[in-house]
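Hello support,

Our group uses your service weekly, and this is the first time we've seen a run hang past the timeout. The protein is Thiol-disulfide isomerase. I'm not sure whether the cause is the sequence or the server load. Input pasted verbatim:
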Amino acid sequence: MRRALFAAAACATAQVGWPQVGWSQATAPQIATGEAVSGQAVSKPEIAPFARGSFDAIRKAHAGRPLIVHFWSVTCSICVAELADWAKLARETSGVDFVFVNADPESDRHRALSRMEKAGLRQAANFAFADRFVERLYFEVDQAWAGELPFTALVAANGRLVTEIGALSDLKLASWLADKAER
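Update from on-call engineer: The timeout came from a worker crash unrelated to the input. Re-ran successfully.
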């Protein structure tokens, strides 16, 4: 089924964030809500900067709706293997919002864009780390997160946050989706 998506391994993250230069003209809230790409033919995925306060802004932009924020890297083999499955899940799952955050340094941006394109994330809400002090970004998402990837934040419609380090199991994700993250 989605065997690659839910492998039981985790990958280490890149330790350098992307500087906040060269970003698309779309703003982070536009990317987070899909406004930047809806109704347009987009040749390349739009990427908004994920910097201090971004996680909170994303949660606020999706308040009242279940939200999955998935962190990945091109240097993480599990992340790369499951990325197309995540894109398919995002396209086929109604009632749940998805945001994808790339944790690679700017030197790997071209590889990240290529992977996003290949995985089918053209219309997804995409962000990339934009702070060299990545530990601060980890801490804002989950105080116990040390940067391991893949990493997924499951935000219930009521705002309750559950985070998972490593690939999610079929059972855990199916249960969360079935409940529409109300628990």
